[in-house]
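Technical note accompanying the year-one report. For the benefit of new consortium partners, we illustrate the data format agreed upon in the data management plan: each record pairs a sequence with a structure-token string. No post-processing was applied to the example shown here.
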Amino acid sequence: MYTIFNIYWINSVKPVITALVLIAVILAIIFFDTFCSINISIPVFYIVVIIFYSNKESLQRVYGLSAACILLTVLAFLLGHYNNIWSIEFAHCFVNLVAIISTTFLIRKNKLKSEKLRYSEELLTQTQELSKTGSIRFDSPTKQVTWSHETARIFDYDLTKQPTLACIYRRVHRADIVNLKEALTEFSDESPLVSVQFRLMLSNDKIKYVCMLIKRVPLGDTSAVYIGAIQDITKFKLNEFAKTKAQSDLAHANRVSVLGELTTTLAHDINQPLSAITINSEAAGRWLAQSPINTHEIKQNLLGINKGAQKASDIIQCIYALAKKSPIDKTLVPINSIFSESFALMDGLINKTDVAIDYQGNSADCTLFANKVALQQVIINLLLNSIQAFKHDQADKKISITVQINGPNIEIIMKDNGPGFKSDSASKFFNAFYTTKKNGMGMGLTICSTIIKDHNGIIKISNNPTGGACVILSLKAQCDGGEVYE
């Protein structure tokens, strides 16, 4: 009921009352200007009426009121001084008319500027809403914070709320407050811009991801104004997380597929140490049955059992690491261990296909800041590609792998003496579903490329001048306990 009354008051009653008051004031001005001898310029009050009226009405109506005031001023002058038109009062009337006209043009100029400003503000508001980008300003001397409507929406506050630093920090995720405060202290003359990403914890326990770019504008030696743009990047972040998960699932599927290709040789590799364990245990039993007991031989048999069990365990651990959905966390990994464990999985296939592996590891204590399982997946994929590229009747099959340091990078150069590939295929190898194999999926090298890029590295494929293919991996390295290059 109260709302209906307000609408009725604003739309119907208030305009009528305003018009009646305006008419009454104008009539009073006419009366005093025509019939009273007061030593002041009565028509000046017309200017007050025009200014008051211009605050609420359109420019066309202001023109109409100004024209009416001009006519009334002239009419009052003629009625009051018809017998002496060319007196000093004529000059007063002329000045009053000039004042009314000048005021009208000033009001016109001000209204046009106000309209332009209002249009710009509406355009800015709509643009910020479309781009989900708000603006914020912090005045260091007065501690006053101002923000746009979009910023208030991003922080999930009412548009009428007066912003403060406290209400901003109240919305920041507890785990990100320290990082945000540290970022805001990184301003310097050389770096007046700071960019920081953080999360907001809203009232409904919903998490929002935002990116804020802040510029520091010095006002003096100690004070400054901070102007910032803040963008809601929640959709982008969620899409990024979904993409990362999809890539992780695809990489896992590829690892399982690779293990499927290696099933036969892996069974053989595990069977060998198990057979050795059986043989050594039977031999130890026979030595125990003899008198006197030969402890030396029994000890050798037990060592053989332990060695076989350890080898079988290592192979199973490698299989498990590749088969499970391992986390994407990165740690410091020795480069040589990546190859040794990859060779352990590939050993059966390498022997079965009569391929000679010439591995020249780096003697320095080089490590990579990497995901170990992911890089093993790359090495195994590349080895499989080279082995499968060899013709069955080719003699002297060879794959050479060289690990070398090149500045802050560690380079892995893998060459084979196989048939190589067509020159026009090089640019397509990393495209999804492109394959030169008869039953290939075309995802192996695509996944390898994604993994290497995720490690800020580079992968290149080319033909050797002497025949065969060459793959070069370049990754950031840490050697001899030095700095990790990222």
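Partners are asked to follow this layout when depositing records. The longest helix spans residues 88-131.
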